Amino acid sequence: MARILVVEDNERLARLIADGLTAQGHVCDCVLSLGAADDALHAAQFDGLVLDLGLPDGDGVDWLRQRTGAVPPVLVLTARDALEDRIRGLDAGADDYLPKPFEMRELAARLRALLRRPGGRHDAILTLANLVYDPAGQSVHVDKAALELTRREAALIELLLRRAGQVVRRAAIENSLYTFDEAVTPNAVEAVVSRLRRKLDEAGAAVELHTIRGVGYMARARAA
Amino acid sequence: MSRPPSITGRLTNSLALVGGIGAVLLLIVIGIEYRISFSNLSNHDALVQALHELSEHVLLPMAVLILPMALAGRWAIKSGVKPLIAAARQIDARADETRGVRVDITHFPVEARPFAEAINRVLGRVDHAAALHEAFAADIAHELRTPLTLLSLELDRLDYPEAERMRGDVAQMRRLIDQLMLLAQVDADRTAHVPPARLDLGDIAAEVIAQLAPIALDQERRLALEGDVPLLIHGRREAIAAALRNLIENALRVTPPQGTVTVRTAPSAGGEDVLLAVRDEGPGLAPDELLALVERHRRADHASRDGAGLGLAIVERIMRAHGGRLSASPETHEIVLHFPAAPASG
Fold it and tell me: In terms of residue numbers, what domain contains B251?
């Protein structure tokens, strides 16, 4: 699926992460230091970076801040999870932050979400279970059958698919679905979600749209 | 049992002594000056004369001097000791704070300063030792993270029927380490005197629920948020989020499958507090049971099986750091966090 560079000085941990990501269909390279990471980024193009913060030749956050040129989306691994550290990491250019200890599926899910962000090389097609969304044409297919969606429904499914498995806050949905001039009634988003949910069910999509009352919505693959 | 020495008692004794010695000295002086000898005191008139002289020149001046001196002495002692008593009251009033307590010596009399300064030095050393202890605990928690990650990832690769149960154990260890780190953080915040930020409780609640909702759905339980108005408080975002996370995780454990854990934000009936309540669909926790759970862990008597008590003890500590409290309301199945409301502006 994607080419990932793992920067982690604990050799066993690096190997385990690489094995796990390979099992998810990614292509993985491991380096044990920041210097080696520089070389690897010169030598090849990566879609994502898994970066440990405490490395023998320096601090990952400083390295990230000082790096010039294009850096692929970065998922920072750290044993620190105090708020200040997190903010420092995100400010320096990390895209997401995963505290140790973590489980492989958590790492895989976060990485998937990173690769789905707009602007990445994998911007092209979003897939969740048997649902395929093409942002370029705003078209949705369920098991290769096209699904008719309104502009708003398409925008909503794109938003939810980009952060599949995570809750998208209602305010964020309102922001991207409605302009300033349009009055958003409290139930407007809920109505769009209900219509979209019905259409997906009728088309046989193995995707569930969960309502987290008072907070937002989340798209997930239906449990087998 | 001898009574503890009292400065006022000593003053009274010394003034009595001064009076006694003064009286004897005056008697001698008068005797020499008036050439009175014991022999001519046999004359009645002379005796009366002598007694008159004595009361006028010895007893009266003594009384005139000693009484105001005694009163002035008592007053001086009382007002001198006043800052000490005030300082004692101040320290007692901060009974909740175990760290960073110092005796305020700005109004202390010079005589009492060396003692107060020595006490402050001891308190400083105690604080330092406690900080080292906490840093050590945080370091251990920190160091445990990498091996635990390795263990967790190795388990992911195992195709072994017991692996799932072991994954549960690792998750439990991970929770405990997170709690330890959090506890260290709460104490560090408290001693660092970081100014708290203005926060919207509803926004924190939405963020925590968004994080936990996928996990809850995995466990076939739902999360919901009630209350739409922004409710402002002063506090530390991470600590409050962690407290809420603890309560939601506990609530998920007692709520049966298909049930919903509901978080509610509201101003209190009087309006001076802001409430953050977590409602479960379990059997409900009576206030005294909650108190027992919190108390048990405060005394470090680790008897709870699932770590819920440790979590609640940490929540209680976070609430105290925010000038708030924790309560249970069994009739509504809620555990409620009470925060002092932030003033409307500023």
Answer: 197-346
Class of domain A3-123: alpha beta
Tell me yes or no: is domain A126-221 CATH 1.10.10.10. yes
Question: E strands of chain B, at which residues?
Answer: 197-200, 222-226, 232-235, 260-267, 273-279, 325-329, 334-340
Helix (H) or strand (E) holding B206: helix B201-218
Indicate the SS3 state at residue B273: strand
ipTM of the complex: 0.76
List residues in chain A touching B: CB distance below 8 A: 10, 12-13, 16-17, 19-20, 79-83, 99-105, 165-167, 169, 210, 212-216, 218, 220
Q: How many CB pairs under 8 A join A and B?
A: 96
Of B146, B174, B214, the CB nearest to A165: B214
Q: Is the pTM of this model over 0.95?
A: no
pLDDT in tens, chain A (224 residues): 689 999 998 899 999 999 999 988 889 999 999 999 999 988 888 889 999 887 888 888 888 888 877 778 899 887 766 556 666 777 777 888 888 888 888 888 888 888 877 655 545 688 888 999 988 788 899 998 999 999 889 989 999 988 888 899 998 898 888 877 777 787 889 999 999 999 999 999 999 999 999 999 999 988 76
